Amino acid sequence: MSSSSSAAAPHSPVVRLEGVTKSFANGTLALDRLTLDVAPGEFLSLLGPSGCGKSTALRIIAGLSHPTSGRVDWPSAGEGAGAHARSIGFVFQEPTLMPWATVFNNVWLPLRLKGRSKASVRDAVMDALERVGLAAFADAYPRELSGGMKMRVSLARALVTRPKLLLMDEPFAALDEITRFKLNNDILKLQAELGWTVVFVTHSVFESVYLSSRIVVMAARPGRVFDEIAVPVPRPRNESFRTSPDYVALCREASDALTRAMQAAGREVA
Questions:
Q1: How far apart are CA 248 and CA 252, in angstroms?
Q2: 74-97 residue pLDDT tens
């Protein structure tokens, strides 16, 4: 469930989108008065079809885009204006690796941009690679890696800065099912170890239920919250959860909500 707007620090959201509207120069209204709280430590999935504004919302949270109206607040930052930017990691749908750079140098990049020397960050970079299972590939180049391994490098690059909030934009959509399942498990393990708050964009009902503590179902044209589904299943989760009655019931609930959201959008267009 959405976090309350109480000013008490333990209950303050990490980030709050309040009445966020985003329109583009071509007239497309991507988001319409989107209001959303992200609670500390939760794994929140934005579930919806392509074009419903999920990625736009993520980019606005990251500061890569700005709302046309509405506001983005950081109630629990407590470090002064703009301080939240240092606590965000972003994993894009494509790994976006530099093909001419080694795995180590790709992971070093965000720290390098902050003026950190290679020698000073060696331990941090190797720790990040160790956590994603790629320490042995530090000197490899992207062309030598599988799709899943490239995504692990992208993940290591995000976690090397030790973010408090991790934003993930359909990072596993192009991967085969076996690799995707493995990376789902790895993300949950890393979140437990590092204490991330995660906002995860997906169009997969099954992935959203497996990963999330809460699912926000979005309707398109324009993008807005249509429904919210709590996933009150204890962690850690494993493969037995995927075959459990709870999982099946929650997938059905999410699927029904997604179908209704798409039907609602279709009626508005008509």
A1: 6
A2: 886 655 445 555 589 999 888 889
CATH number of 9-96+165-269: 3.40.50.300
- Report how far apart, in Å, the C-alpha atoms of 141 and of each of 116, 144, 155, 157 are: 22, 6, 16, 15
- Residue-wise pLDDT for 138-195, tens only, equals 999 999 999 999 999 999 999 999 999 999 999 998 889 999 999 999 999 999 999 8
- Whose tokens are 């899943």? That residue is 148
* pTM for the predicted model, two decimal places: 0.89
DSSP codes, 48-69: --TTSSHHHHHHHHHTSS--SE
Exposure on the CB side of residue 94, measured as CA atoms within 13 A: 5
Structure tokens at 28: 């497309």
Query: Distance between CA 98 and CA 203 in Å, rounded?
Result: 27
